[in-house]
Each structure stands twice: as C-alpha cells, then as structure tokens.
Amino acid sequence: MAVRHFLSLLDCSPRELRDIIGRAIEMKARQLELAESAPFNNRVLAMIFEKASTRTRVSFEAGMAQLGGHAMYLSPQGTQLGRGEPIEDSARVISSMVDIVMIRTFGHDIVERFAANSKVPVINGLTDYVHPCQLLADMQTYREYRGDIQGCTVAWVGDGNNMCHSYINAARQFDFELRIACPPGYEPDSGLVAANQSRVAISNDARAAVTGANLVVTDVWASMGQEQEQHAREQAFAGFKVSSDLMSNAARDALVMHCLPAHRGEEIDSEIIDAEDSVIWDEAENRLHAQKALMEFLLEAH
Ligand code: CP
Ligand code: NVA
C-alpha cells in the first residue's frame, strides 16, 4: 500500500476527515481504556521542529506516550539538518528508523520533499503555507459544540496566513461558506482562493464578514518568521480585532476560535478568550485527541 501523508487537508477525502474527527471524539471519551491497551506500543514518532511550539510539541509527544509509543524531538541545531544535510537524505535516513514523522518548518516545499523521500507517513505540523493539524482540532471542537459544520458560515478575520489557507481547504473538505476579512495587501494566496471561489469570499470589511456567522476565527497578525513586521502589521490590522463589539454582529450562538498563542488585546480581546463559554481551551486540548486519531489512521494505512 502507498504511504499516506498528511501535508494538507486535501491529503484526505472529506469522508476520511470526518471519520478521523469522529475517532478523535471517541478516543477522547475512552482515554484511559485506550492507554491500557497501548496501541502504539513500539511505535516511534520523530518530530522535527524548525520553529517554536507549545501545543504541537506537547500534544504529539503526550499523545504518543499515552498510547504506548515514543516521540523524539529533533531540532536543526541538534541534528545535521542545521549543518546543511539535504532534506532528501535526512528523510531517507530518519524514515528508515522510525514509524511516523512530524515536521514543523518554514517552506511548504520542505515537507513535500521530505515526504517524497520518506518510507513512513509524514505529518505537517505547520508550514508557512498551511496548518492542517490545527484544523482537525478546530473541526472536532465545532462538532462537539454545534454538530456538523456543513452549510454553516465561518468568518476568518485577520491575516491571510497559513491558518487562513487551511480554513480555505476546510471550507472545501467540510463544505461550509468562508468569508475572509483582511486588510488590503494581506489577502490569502490568490490561486487557492480562485480554486475555491464557490465557497470562499474575500473583503476588507470585518463587520460584514462576521454578520450572521456561526464561527469566527482569527490568528496573530505577525506569524513566526514575520516578527520584524509586527509594528507595520499592528497599523495595517487596526479594525480587525475580534472584540465583543464585532461579535455582536455574529449569530447569537456563534463560537470563536483561535489556534493560540494569542496576542491578547491585539487580534482578540481577553474577554473573548476568557469568556465562560469560550471554546478556545477545548480547541487547544483537542490537538491531542485529533492527532492521536490522525496517527492511528496513518499508521494503519501504512
Ligand atoms: N496552535 C499551535 O500550533 O500552537 P503551537 O505553536 O504552540 O504549537
Ligand atoms: N499563523 C501562526 C500560527 C501559529 C500556530 C504562525 O505561523 O506563527
């Protein structure tokens, strides 16, 4: 059987994505029982981090350990990757010794080149282009609180970044309407938008995008690698903050999501994150459950 990778949401069919999320919900409910049976016994996950992480690292490492497997943290500084060993050679070697690999890096081509030379499944733990694991957790969270997202309206407020791109892919795979509001010059990839124009609309009007939305999502204005643009972006994104005022336009029971880490008071107000009915903490925790289900799916398909 050909090795399955998870470099973007498009690597799975809509049906497979729904099944992975259903399994994640089941695994969450049966955590202790599953840990007893140690289904990942003797399985090793290599995690390559070329960027910082809290949630992705902790969720993959804890998930592997809880199911009886082992996770190995690899950084460019601590490996020959940082000294210029080609990604293709690294992929051949690493994938000859472990069962599954997760990579967080800059260029999306790096995960593609690794996967093309890997004998085992490769998971994208975030690139500059997409962040598909986060979408599994977000879609799980929506399903847990509101049921099927098909036919719903989602508003993306902020940067047309990797998370925004994954929401565009999610609109396609989970069949919802996505309204993106971003400042001029910060739009998502035009080719990706064009390929999904039946479900995706772009504007510079956050209020209009949020009006009647069932789910409102945002993310930092300056992503990892864009730190030097922080000040310019603060100016450009004024008016794109998710606040109670903005949320008063959304559907009455609208959910708010943020992948975290957040810049409180910038792209989102603290009172939204800390609200009694906030789902943002469940969204973060669901990274653990969704990725356990994803790893099970990929290891079984292998
Ligand atoms: N949301 C997310 O991926 O968080 P980390 O950068 O902490 O992994
Ligand atoms: N867009 C953010 C997401 C962090 C999880 C970044 O790439 O830094």
Structure description:
The structure is a single chain. Strand 6 (177-181), helix 8 (190-195) and strand 7 (200-203) form a beta-alpha-beta unit. The chain is built from 13 helices and 9 strands. The chain is globular. It has 2 domains: 9-131 and 286-301, Rossmann fold; 133-283, Aspartate/ornithine carbamoyltransferase (Rossmann fold). The model has no long low-confidence stretch (mean pLDDT 98). The protein has helices spanning 14-29, 31-37, 55-66, 87-94, 108-116, 132-146, 162-174, 190-195, 206-210, 230-236, 244-247, 270-273, 280-301; strands spanning 44-49, 70-74, 100-104, 122-124, 153-157, 177-181, 200-203, 215-218, 255-258. The termini are close together. Helices cover 42% and strands 14% of the residues. With 302 residues, the protein is α/β, with parallel strands linked by helices. Strands 7-6-5-8-9 form a 5-stranded parallel beta sheet. The structure holds phosphoric acid mono(formamide)ester and norvaline. Norvaline binds at residues 126, 131, 161-163, 219-220, 223-224, 259.
CATH fourth-tier homologous superfamily of the largest domain: Aspartate/ornithine carbamoyltransferase
- Main beta sheet: 5 strands, parallel
What proportion of the residues form beta strands (DSSP E)? 5-15%
Number of helical segments with 4 or more residues: 13
Alpha carbon gap, first and last residue: 7 Å
CATH class of the largest domain: Alpha Beta
- Derived structural class: alpha/beta
What spatial form do the alpha-carbon principal axes imply?
globular
What's the structural domain tally? Answer: 2
